[in-house]
Amino acid sequence: MAAERDITGSQSVDRALQVLSLVGRGPEQGLSLLEIVERSGFNKATTRRLLLALMRARMVSQDEVERRYFLGEEAYVLGVFAAPRFGLLEMAMESLTRLARQTSDACFLSIRRDTFSICLHREEGNYPIRSHALQKGFEHPLGVGAGSLAMLSTLPDGEVEDVLARNADYLAATFPMVTAADIRAAVQVTRRRGYALNPGVPFPNSWGLGVALRYPDGRLAGALSVAAIDSRMQEPRQSELSRLLREEAACVEAKLERAFDRDPPKGRAGHRANGHPTPRLNQPRRISL
C-alpha cells in the first residue's frame, strides 16, 4: 500500500509539473482551462485539481475577469533566483535586439534540452511579412530548424547518432519529411560552412540561419538564429546574415568568457573538482544549462 501511495503521489507531482510547464510556455494572454486540458491530455476534473494545487502554492494565478491562467508570483521569485545560473538569455539580449534591428527579421536564442532544442526568446524585427514557425517555448528535435541544426552540428558524430536514434520515433511521427539521413547530411554541410541553413524544412516558406554558441571550455551553450520568408534568405543575403550572426555570437561568447575566472591554479578553492574555474563573486556567475 505504501508503494502504491508513493507511485500515486509521484504521478500527481509529475502531472502538476507538466501543467505548470504548459502554463509557463503559454502565450502572453495566458491559457484557458480548455486549452490546458487539450494540451495536457488530462481530463477536466484532474486539470482543475492540479491548477488549484498550483494556485495554492502561488506557482499559477488566474485572471479574475478572463479566467485564463498565468505563471504566479512564486514562479517569478524562483525564476529570479535561478536567473544567475541560467543567465544565457540575459547575456544574449543585447545581441538579439541588435540582430533584429539590423536584419528586420525575427531572431532567436535557443538551447539544448537533452535531444531537443527549445526556443528561449524570439525578438521581432520590423519587416511586415514574418515567419511564425518558431515561437518562444517551442521545442524541436535537434537537427530540425536552423538553431537546432547548428547545435547538433557541434556534437561528436557518436553523440549525433545517439540523438538521431532516440528521436527516430518522434521524427517519424511529427516530421516525416525529415529523415535521419537528411539531418546527417545537413550536419556535415553546417560544419563546413560554419553556420546552419534551413531551406524551408519542414515549413517551405520559412527559412532560417543559425550559429552555435559555446562556453569558454568548448561546451555547447546554445544558438542564435534568424528566420524569414524564403525570398529574404537567398544569396547574397545569406552571406550577410551569417556574418552578422557570427559577430553577435562572438559578442555573447565574450560575455561568457568574462563569466569565468581562469586565474586561480588548479587545486585552489577557486576551482571545481573537474578543474574548471568557478566564477568570481563580483562577476556574472558561471552559466550552466
TrEMBL record:
InterPro entries from the UniProt entry: GAF-like_dom_sf, HTH_MetabolicPath_Reg, Tscrpt_reg_IclR_C, Tscrpt_reg_IclR_N, WH-like_DNA-bd_sf, WH_DNA-bd_sf
Domain HTH iclR-type: 10-73
Swiss-Prot/TrEMBL keywords: DNA-binding, Transcription, Transcription regulation
IclR-ED domain boundaries: 74-258
Gene3D superfamilies: 3.30.450.40, Winged helix-like DNA-binding domain superfamily/Winged helix DNA-binding domain (1.10.10.10)
Keyword set includes Transcription: yes
Gene Ontology terms describing biological process: negative regulation of DNA-templated transcription
Positions of region (Disordered): 257-289
Start-end of Basic and acidic residues biased regions: 257-266
GO molecular function, one term: DNA binding
PANTHER family reported in the protein's UniProt record: HELIX-TURN-HELIX TRANSCRIPTIONAL REGULATOR, ICLR FAMILY, TRANSCRIPTIONAL REGULATORY PROTEIN
Protein name as annotated: IclR family transcriptional regulator
Organism, scientific name: Tianweitania sediminis
